[in-house]
Amino acid sequence: MSWYTGEQTYDTILALAFGLVLIVALSSAFVVAPYGRFASGRYGLSLNPRLGWFLMELPATLTFVVVFFLGRNSLQTVPLIFLAMWLIHYGNRGFAFPFLIRTPAGSRSSFSLMVVASGWLVTALHGYLNAAYIADLGSHYTSAWLTDPRFLIGLVVYYGALLGNIHSDAILRGLRTHAEIAEGQKVYRIPKGGLFRWVSNPSYLTELVAWAGFALCTWSLGSLFVLLISCANLIPRAAATHRWYRERFEDYPAERKILIPFIW
Ligand SMILES: NC(=O)c1ccc[n+]([C@@H]2O[C@H](COP(=O)([O-])OP(=O)(O)OC[C@H]3O[C@@H](n4cnc5c(N)ncnc54)[C@H](OP(=O)(O)O)[C@@H]3O)[C@@H](O)[C@H]2O)c1
């Protein structure tokens, strides 16, 4: 056991992390995180969204990789599979997604530095809690785990949802024309097709299902933390986004739900 995975250290950090989930859930109910369509000058300095996303997500990759390779089990099969999942996930969210963002030329910075700073705490905790457990503390990641139904179902759920997430993000990215981007016009349109047929926030829905799949697949409290803090962030934001669309577009599809098809 290493200093950073000593049971007391890990459990204390885990308990603080669950405390943070409560704080985020309470604050998100009152304040929508100031970036994108909800950007606001009231919260101090803002960054270009590409830089903001990249910086905010970076600790998830860095912390995970460093802590993972300090772990005693880092070269075993199951931990290596989770490492690959992590690198694919954050290769998309932390590197490809920010690089592909289509910000209108010359538009003002809209990604609050406050969001980046609070995001660092979450992404660093996320990396640490998962890597320390997967590569050091977890005792069930033997070769038998490869045929456990939780691992297999979680893997299918995770990758199915990740594909839906990438597709939904791509639909949003395609809503602004090249001319609008070049002329610096920040235009919003009603997204259509894919999972947008059923809900206003398919990126958030698939993000949450993907983390639920990862939690099932790893069967750990560290992955439950990321699922819960993502719920705390994204459920209120999904409701605010749905309201925003309905107030802004008279022809917004009335049958479209907020986050859960046919239900909410
Ligand atoms: N795990 C977590 O806690 C967590 C937290 C946040 C986000 N995420 C994930 O990160 C991804 C992005 O999230 P987000 O909150 O940035 O999503 P978003 O508000 O939908 O924005 C995504 C991109 O699409 C553009 N866009 C959105 N709606 C548009 C419309 N109607 N017309 C034209 N362009 C539009 C945005 O431009 P503008 O920036 O100019 O509005 C932005 O560049 C999602 O997959 C989400 O699940 C995860």
Give structural notes:
This protein is mainly α. The chain has one domain. 65% of the residues lie in helices and 2% in strands. Helix 2 (49-70) packs antiparallel against helix 3, helix 2 packs parallel to helix 4 (113-137) and helix 5 (149-173) runs antiparallel to helix 7 (202-218). The N and C termini lie far apart (45 Å). The mean pLDDT is 94.
Descriptive terms for the model:
mainly alpha, single chain, 264 residues, two-stranded antiparallel sheet, binds NADP nicotinamide-adenine-dinucleotide phosphate, globular
The coarse overall form would be globular
Give, in order, the helices and strands: HEHHEHHHHH
Class computed from helices, strands and strand pairing? mainly alpha
Strand numbers in spatial order across the main sheet: 1-2
Range of strand content: under 5%
Strand segment count: 2
Whole-angstrom Rg: 19 Å
Distance between the termini: 45 Å
List the helices and strands and how they pair.
Blueprint: H1 7-30, E1 46-47, H2 49-70, H3 77-100, E2 111-112, H4 113-137, H5 149-173, H6 178-183, H7 202-218, H8 221-248
Antiparallel strand pairs: 1-2
Bound molecules: NADP nicotinamide-adenine-dinucleotide phosphate (NAP).
Q: What's the quick description here?
A:
The chain is 65% helix and 2% strand.
